[in-house]
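Throughout our pipeline, every protein is held as a single compact record rather than as scattered files. Such a record has a labelled line for the sequence and another for the backbone structure tokens. The remainder of this section carries one protein's record, kept here as part of the documentation:
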Amino acid sequence: MEDLIALCKRRGFIYPSSEIYGGISGFWDYGPLGVELKKNIKQLWWTDNVQKRDDIVGIDASIIMNPRVWEASGHVEAFTDPLVECKACNKRFRFDQYANILCKDNKPHAQKNLTEPRVFNLLTEVFLGVTEPKQKAYLRGEITQGAFVNFANIIDSTRVKIPFGIAQIGKAFRNEITPGNFTYRSREFEQIEIEFFIRPDQKESEKWFDYWKNERLNWYKNLGMSPDNLRFRKHEDTERAHYAKDAVDIEFKAPFGWSEFEGIHNRGDWDLSRHNLKYKDQETNEEFYPWVIESSGGVDRAALFFLINAYVKDEKRVYLKLHPKLSPFKAAVFPLLSNKEDLVVKAKAVYDQLKQKYSVAWDDRGNIGKRYAYQDEIGTPVCITIDYDSLKDNTVTLRDRDTTKQERVKIAEIEKSIAKILL
């Protein structure tokens, strides 16, 4: 993890937030490459789950909603963690984390030094208005409720019929006691969620629950996550969320252990019944509270696990074996020598042509070996070098990131070569 964290900062993937002022625990900034990686994850998810489907529509709900939303959903009452304080060092943290957090003597906390656990609400409070007393509200602790409170609006303004889904991407906030493991547990994070509405029927719910389990696991596999690093973990009855009839986590085998980054939940009719929102079948005039099958993933956690999964260090080099669809740049273009104007002009023409269609890097720093090493570290799948032969026959050298093999390709064929690796 230390090597990957260093690479992320050195190459512009992820920085500590407000680092020049000492940072702030649980918050992270995404640099030029990190923002591209996250954008690619979100765009691919949206394309596969909204654009290519006829049964899912998208929304973008506000981060702050009427506080009654969180009262109706049960979050004000139930969205809590047990918090303890160490009498020796005065640190506060979640009770289930005390064995992993060091005390002032750099040893694990002794349970005898901990206060009794006290309930701590994870919702982050905000205060609105210009006069006192200001209205108390909350930054959303999950993006889910935005889909539910707009259920009637979507039914009325579109032609969707059950079964159908509402998809959303957005920021959420939790007042985590012990953020950690790099970006894995943060206080500000981004979610990708589908709330899929079905008839209130047990067999129907089992069918769609299994469908979304497999659909979501295969999505990560198809983007290069090793099957050996993925597994399902079913929630025990004692650990399921207050709303869940059934729940399964997709977990990734991280350096800090198997860790959840997407959940599939059968939420039953908890949410729509709490908000008193029914569905009316226009053909039968039947009214009912739909059940909900939810897939809820973390963009930040997915990005972290894609990076961990892709990180390769061998005797010769370090490189990120990212799926080309996820790579911040799809190709990099070099002139063989940066001080030869004819090579630079030719390379610039190739670069300008490619960047109209793809995210492409330009690099003319240092020697060609250092450029290859840099692009390998940031996961660029193809490097394109313009040399003196290019001036004669309009061919270039294409170098593959994973194999380091090189081939000559005509300039007119470069786009086809890039498109092929993006299939």
